[in-house]
Specification:
Length: 423
């Protein structure tokens, strides 16, 4: 599907979808708890359906409607077929570790872009804990062979490739024979995502000890207990709505948890630093069109914000410098390259080097944008298209199903002029 966007003004209130990151973690912890757990308000998207599909392939029963998933945590069984993780890196990483608790062999595969997502640090970390697993030269597919028991002990890995590797080991650590002592050999990036993992584990009765800088973790042998967990609104998705208000109107984003552990709540600080008129109310945030100024920001802990922050910088006065982008080459697309390509197409002057992207703000002009099947790229240029001169065409716009299936409907509800082609 392609989408054609013409300039306009957005007004109104909208709620973002539930958190994708929390949904993944709550579902997996529910499975590891012996008994019945409930995940309220889960995100229903391609990525979370992938995690659910893999778990069901391991014999888990999950039932209920889109508002509530009830999970029977009664043990994992060897799958009859390969476990297809779609294009979800979170599914591949977290479920690789979970498969070490299965008595048998598990083969985890995925779609084309997933084959470019690193796995080496995780499989190495699991092998240090006594797990028989192998990858394909450091990438998917992955095979895990186990008798259902993990020895545990000491493990070390890099902390600057993906925080999901750390989360994966922490999630299975309580069910190891000797517990786990995990040491990171480089500083941890995306710390909020690991904090989120630990919060969800705590909700299911598991405690993780970590050093102040989150470079050392210790998890004793313990058990998950059933729980009911309500998934809060997704700050990653909310960032696009808030930026849309800042660039093109007056938008209130509701059902947000202020002070959340979600990394992308950092969008509030970034937009404020650019001069955005933000008004807080309990559980909501309102953004209105503002005269934006350039900024300098390190996105190491919230790399998913890079595309939409770059979009705001593209329409700001002055020069912006964005850093902490190294890991973005391993997302659904090489996001730095994809954003440079797109910003250049809409007549924005942008430069990059090994450590940063420099954006000279101006007046974007509509263009044809290739999303590279990357949901965050598609949503970013939709926001820019609403304020750009002329029409903006976004190719493969259906990729937003990965994290925000209702994105186009929500933009239209706010007053955006959108034509969909090839649906």
């Amino acid at each position: 599907m392609n989408v054609v966007i013409t300039p306009g003004v957005l007004r109104g209130a909208v709620s973002p979808p539930p958190s994708k990151s929390i949904t993944h973690r709550a579902l997996i912890c529910s499975v590891l708890a012996q008994g019945v757990s409930v995940v309220e308000n889960p995100l229903i998207s391609e990525d979370t359906r992938a995690t659910r599909r893999v778990l069901e392939g391991l014999g888990i029963e999950i039932y209920g409607d889109d508002n509530r998933w009830t999970v029977e945590g009664e043990g994992l069984v060897e799958p009859a077929l390969a476990l297809h993780c779609g294009e979800s890196g979170t599914t591949m990483r977290l479920m690789t570790a979970v498969c070490a608790l299965v008595n048998g062999e598990c083969n985890l595969t995925g779609g084309p872009s997933l084959s470019n997502r690193p796995m080496g640090p995780l499989t190495s970390g699991l092998r240090q804990l006594g797990v028989d697993c192998e990858d394909s030269n450091g990438f998917p597919p992955v095979t895990v062979r186990s008798d259902g028991n993990i020895e545990g002990g000491a493990s070390s890995m890099r902390g600057d490739v993906s925080s999901q590797f750390v989360s994966a080991l922490l999630i299975v650590a309580p069910y190891t024979r000797d517990g786990v002592r995990l040491e990171l050999t480089t500083p941890l990036e995306s710390k909020p995502y690991v904090s989120m993992t630990m919060d969800v584990q705590r909700a299911f009765g598991v405690e993780v000890d970590s050093s102040r800088e989150m470079t050392e973790f210790e998890v004793r042998k313990q058990e998950y207990v059933p729980a009911n967990l309500n998934v809060e609104g997704d700050w990653s998705s909310a960032s696009f709505l808030l930026a849309a208000g800042a660039l093109s109107g007056d938008v209130e984003v509701r059902n947000l948890s202020v002070g959340s552990r979600q990394a992308d709540e950092a969008i509030v600080e970034v937009l404020a630093s650019m001069g955005v008129d933000l008004q807080r109310k309990e559980g909501s945030l309102r953004a209105r069109t503002s005269e934006l100024r350039g900024t300098e920001v390190d996105l190491s802990n919230s790399p998913d914000l890079f595309p939409i922050v770059a979009a705001a910088c593209a329409s700001a006065s002055g020069i912006s410098v964005l850093r902490g982008l190294r890991r973005l080459q391993y997302k659904e697309s090489d996001r730095v390259s994809t954003m440079v390509e797109g910003l250049t197409a809409i007549s924005v002057d942008v430069e990059r080097d090994e450590k940063s992207v420099t954006i000279h703000g101006g007046k974007p002009r509509g263009a044809v944008i290739d999303s590279h099947n990357d949901h965050r790229i598609a949503m970013t240029f939709a926001v820019l298209g609403i304020m750009a001169e002329g029409e903006t065409v976004i190719r493969d716009a259906g990729c937003v199903e990965k994290s925000y299936p209702g994105f186009w409907d929500d933009l239209e509800a706010l007053g955006a002029s959108i034509r969909r082609k090839g649906t």
